[in-house]
UniProtKB/TrEMBL annotation, chain A:
Keyword Ligase annotated: yes
Organism classification: Bacteria, Pseudomonadati, Pseudomonadota, Alphaproteobacteria, Sphingomonadales
Catalytic activity: N(6)-biotinyl-L-lysyl-[protein] + hydrogencarbonate + ATP = N(6)-carboxybiotinyl-L-lysyl-[protein] + ADP + phosphate + H(+)
One GO MF term: biotin carboxylase activity
UniProt EC number: 6.3.4.14
UniProt keywords, alphabetically: ATP-binding, Ligase, Nucleotide-binding
Sequence ranges assigned to domain Biotin carboxylation in this UniProt record: 1-444
Segments forming domain ATP-grasp: 120-315
Matching InterPro entries: ACC_Biotin_Carboxylase, ATP-grasp, BC-like_N, Biotin_carboxylation_dom, Biotin_COase_C, CPAse_ATP-bd, PreATP-grasp_dom_sf, Rudment_hybrid_motif
Biological source species: Altericroceibacterium endophyticum
Name recorded for this polypeptide: biotin carboxylase
UniProtKB/TrEMBL annotation, chain B:
Domain of life: Bacteria
One of the GO BP terms on file: fatty acid biosynthetic process
Pathway: Lipid metabolism; fatty acid biosynthesis
Name of the protein this chain belongs to: Biotin carboxyl carrier protein of acetyl-CoA carboxylase
GO cellular component: acetyl-CoA carboxylase complex
Residue ranges annotated for the Lipoyl-binding domain, each copy included: 69-154
Pfam families referenced in this protein's UniProt entry, alphabetically: Biotin_lipoyl (PF00364)
Function of the molecule: This protein is a component of the acetyl coenzyme A carboxylase complex; first, biotin carboxylase catalyzes the carboxylation of the carrier protein and then the transcarboxylase transfers the carboxyl group to form malonyl-CoA.
InterPro entries for this protein: AcCoA_biotinCC, Biotin_Carboxyl_Carrier/Decarb, Biotin_lipoyl, Single_hybrid_motif
GO molecular function: acetyl-CoA carboxylase activity
Sorted UniProt keywords: Biotin, Fatty acid biosynthesis, Fatty acid metabolism, Lipid biosynthesis, Lipid metabolism
Length: 444, 156
């Protein structure tokens, strides 16, 4: 039985994990940097262990420091949250070596999804459709691949993430120069110059499936649509994916479960698909072997506490939920409130929050670590909270979102709240089913 | 450490109850926390909804002092280049690379003299003035506050 849970993260997700663990009767230890020692997660957790100074490479990203702090705190499990060390196989191994349960999938699953090319290979083995294309060790191979799939193509870094090393190429004569640039960018960003070539899907939606597995059984908790992104960073997420035929949605969910079973996956995971916005053909992209920022929309429609499920599975329990037990209801939307200035190219806006009046009431959930007087330090990412609304229909959920955004007041720093209010009023968004080009056109 | 007194679900329930009443505000204050619930909007503002505003006595007490770059008085006749944001100051585009500028270099208004890393984003620092770098006041990878002076510039 997990009795002492070390939370190797910060911010809203740390507070989120603390709350569920305490409800389960588990003692929580927040592994915080010096900058976060007196943050809300620090107040809410039962104990605080300092893992290092403020900069994350000396604290939240320092495998040895985090493991040492967890050992010193006599933790029997570590929850890594998202980001930081959550999908780091070396971290999971170090926890295992220290006799501490890693609340996440087996190391074999982390490795299987470790890079995009590996994920693609595993997806094919599991019988999932992938975007036409493949590895390109050199330019000749890349050109051959591009001719197979047809232009335009997308060059992607094998070790990539966050859009870096990703390039669209429209014409064969540009390919050589673009490959050079993509490889250089991939080397600089990820220390790995390998790239691969994929057919470019002009109108695609980012649809993902929440899955749970216990190593044998696997279930899905429905789809999420995260097509509204800025530079591959998600801004708005909703569940279920709107404006999509039920049989197509079911096919995507089935494919995700197939992959989860194929991996003998243990824990919570997200299978990401690229869905053609017109034909609804779908292609497997990758699997995120961790809890996701946008998990609350799934919790809203299913009533399942995903953090609780993670902890139960990590503790060796078989899945306590069967597919038939789930009957998702209504529609949920999450918007990310970031400390950024949308009118100044999303420049970060750290500082002290002089007033934080978050929305409240039935059907409204706010996951945040920021209260009035709270500080947004300059060391970490800019997420200060997530507003999640849930209603019987998507139309009602959008109205609820608009009303909640109109009433909330965050003062002292600049946030993306007003940007979300504009998105909530946008006709294409209100209609539902926008593709990943939405934000660029919306912002133009 | 003390735990937060009310769960999010409890707050939702309280709001649901008072929403049906004539009250527009609830203010709960204890030694440990203050929670203000307030009905926003209505009347000319079509949107009507409740907000929750938390503050905590023990939150955000001064954390262990972070290293902060010295803020100096500007010597006579010199201009200062100020940090546009708080964050970590870097003199070069990547470790081992030559510095953007060194003492004695000429700069123009839009010359990049360094980078400040804030919230995982790299923000260029522009000289903002024309002249010669007289002195670099901040070490590489040192923390700076917003508007701290990073460099002195002798105007042409």
């Amino acid at each position: 039985m997990i009795k002492r849970l070390f939370i190797a993260n910060r911010g809203e997700i740390a507070l989120r994990i603390v709350r569920t663990a305490q409800r389960l009767g588990i003692t929580t230890i927040l592994g915080a940097s010096q900058a976060d020692a007196t943050s809300l997660p620090g107040i809410q957790s039962d104990e605080v262990a300092i893992v290092g100074p403020a900069p994350s490479n000396q604290s939240y990203l320092d495998v040895d420091a985090v493991i040492a702090a967890a050992k010193a705190a006599r933790a029997d499990a570590i929850h890594p949250g998202y980001g930081f060390l959550s999908e780091n196989a070396r971290f999971a191994q170090a926890a295992a070596d220290a006799g501490i349960i890693f609340v996440g999938p087996d190391i074999s699953s982390l490795n299987a999804m470790g890079d995009k090319l590996m994920a693609r290979k595993v997806g094919i083995e599991a019988g999932l459709p992938v975007v036409p294309g493949g590895e390109a060790a050199d330019k000749e191979e890349a050109l051959a691949r591009a001719e197979e799939t047809g232009f335009p193509v997308l060059l992607k870094a094998v070790s990539g993430g966050g859009g870096k090393g990703m390039r669209r190429v429209d014409r064969a004569e540009d390919l050589s120069a673009e490959i050079d640039a993509a490889m250089a960018e991939a080397q600089a960003s990820f220390g790995d110059p390998r790239i691969y070539v994929e057919r470019f899907i002009a109108s695609g939606r980012h649809v993902e499936v929440q899955v749970l597995g216990d190593g044998e059984q696997a279930i899905h908790l429905g789809t999420r649509d995260c097509s509204i992104q800025r530079r591959f960073q998600k801004l708005v997420e909703e569940a279920p994916a709107p404006a999509m035929p039920d049989d197509k949605r079911a096919a995507i969910e089935d494919a995700a479960v197939r992959l989860t079973r194929h991996l003998n996956y243990r824990g919570a995971g997200t299978v990401e698909m690229l869905v053609d916005a017109e034909s609804f053909d779908f292609y497997f992209l990758e699997m995120n072997a961790r809890i996701q920022v946008e998990h609350p929309v799934t919790e809203a429609i299913t009533g399942v506490d995903l953090i609780e499920q993670q902890i139960l599975i990590a503790d060796g329990n078989p899945l306590g939920i069967r597919q038939d037990d789930l009957s998702p209801t209504g529609h949920a939307i999450e918007v990310r409130i970031n400390a950024e200035d949308p009118d100044a190219e999303f420049q970060p806006s750290p500082g002290t929050i002089t007033r934080a009046a978050w929305p409240a009431g039935p059907g409204i959930r706010v996951d945040t670590h920021i209260a009035t007087g709270g500080k947004v330090p300059p060391f970490y990412d800019s997420l200060i909270g997530k507003l999640i609304v849930h209603a019987a229909t998507r139309e009602e959920a959008v109205d609820k979102l608009a009303a909640a955004l109109a009433s909330m007041r965050i003062e002292g720093i600049t946030t993306t709240a007003n940007l979300h209010a504009k998105i909530a009023a946008n006709a294409a968004f209100r209609k539902g089913g926008v593709d990943t080009r939405f934000f660029k056109e919306f912002a133009a | 450490m003390s735990n937060l007194p009310l769960t999010p679900d409890a707050v939702s329930e309280i709001v649901a109850i008072i929403d049906g009443s004539g009250y527009d505000r609830v203010d709960i204050k204890t030694d440990a926390f203050r929670l203000r619930l307030r009905r926003e909007g209505g009347a000319d503002n079509a949107a009507e909804g409740w907000t929750q505003d938390w503050s905590f006595a023990e939150a955000e007490a001064p954390a262990a002092a972070d290293k902060v770059a010295p803020v100096e008085e500007l010597p006579d006749g010199l201009l200062g280049i100020a940090a546009p944001l708080p964050g970590t100051f870097y003199r070069a585009p990547q470790p081992g690379a030559p510095a953007f500028v060194k003492e004695g270099d000429k700069v123009e208004k839009d010359t990049v003299v360094g980078i400040i890393e804030t919230m995982k984003l790299m923000n260029p620092v522009h000289a903002g003035c024309t002249g010669t770098i007289e002195k670099v006041l901040v070490e590489n990878s040192e923390m700076v506050d917003a508007s701290a002076t990073i460099m002195h510039v002798r105007p042409d």
